[in-house]
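Dear colleagues,

As part of the handover before I leave the project, I'm documenting each prediction I ran so the next person doesn't have to rerun anything. This entry is a single chain, and its sequence is reproduced below.
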Amino acid sequence: MGWQEILSSAPRADERNDVEYFEVESRRVLNPARLPWLPFDLTLNPYLQCELGCAYCYAREHADRRARGAGGPDRGAFDRRIYAKTGAPAVLRDELARLSRLGGLGGKEIALGTATDPYQPYERRARLTRALLEVFATVEDVRLSITTKSDLVLRDLDVLQAIGRKGHVQVNVTITTVDRDLARSLEPRAPTPARRLRAVEGLARAGVPVGVFCMPVLPELTEAPRDLRAIVCAAREAGAAWFAANVLFLRGEAVRAAFFAWLEGAFPALVPRYRRLYQGPSAPEAITDRVTRVVEALRRQYGLPAHVPWPAPRAGPRQLSLFEAAPTVEPLAPAERRPGRALPVLSRDPRAASA
């Protein structure tokens, strides 16, 4: 049975406004990262498609490929038909057990939330991501990174701390702008930038390593040094330990169509400019190089690296412990924030914010 048949026959689990949630059985959970430049080895996505509806989301192209040519209900419904992979925690447990028999994870890095946000609004009810984290909390020396736009991640502080006691976990919070109105237009169902910054602060206070992803940077809209400084300053103040940024990348017709539809509605005067810039998937090197230089200068000024390396593997007699009962998770006392240097005042003169 192909994907379209599986998704078309999936039972509906919930409905809110114009969004429907369905449940599909999981056949596989961990997937190899096939591109050599990706900074992780395995990926894990508990949901297919994404309610947040971000205009630039590259995962639209993957969803369109699944539905292309079949004429099914998912064509063009990326943010209105969401699928939860029921049974994923049990499948993950089996897959980790199989890896254990083959010698363990061997330092492999696992990325949760590479295609769609693991903290969909439906996650409040489904608790699917939390159940997956509880499986990881039983694993010795796991290396897990989570990428999200949602402050719902704070609900799972206890489990994240439990993972950190046996292994390693990092959280990347995506913040594309601190402008609430622009964020609401660009990412219509995502939590506000202020809520995401509160998530960064809450994770940092709890001792969970956390950084900020400014992805994507939008030419003409969020690329100005003053705008980038505002995000870096806010990230540093909230307790982020790293900061990374990439310029908008439009690969695939579904992604381009969704982004230009948004641009035509929100900033129609910029459409001709963007069509000149994005004749291919990437912005011209002049733009990407300029943004890179500004971001690097801001990182140096605010003491934020692009990433932090994983700690060395922990010594111990076991690598995986998969068949014991899930541990009783007791929250740790919040970690004290280390005092940092005073942050410079954000200038209102863009010329003074050239990093």
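The chain has one domain: 3-310. The first strand starts at residue 12 and ends at 16.

All the best with the project,
I.
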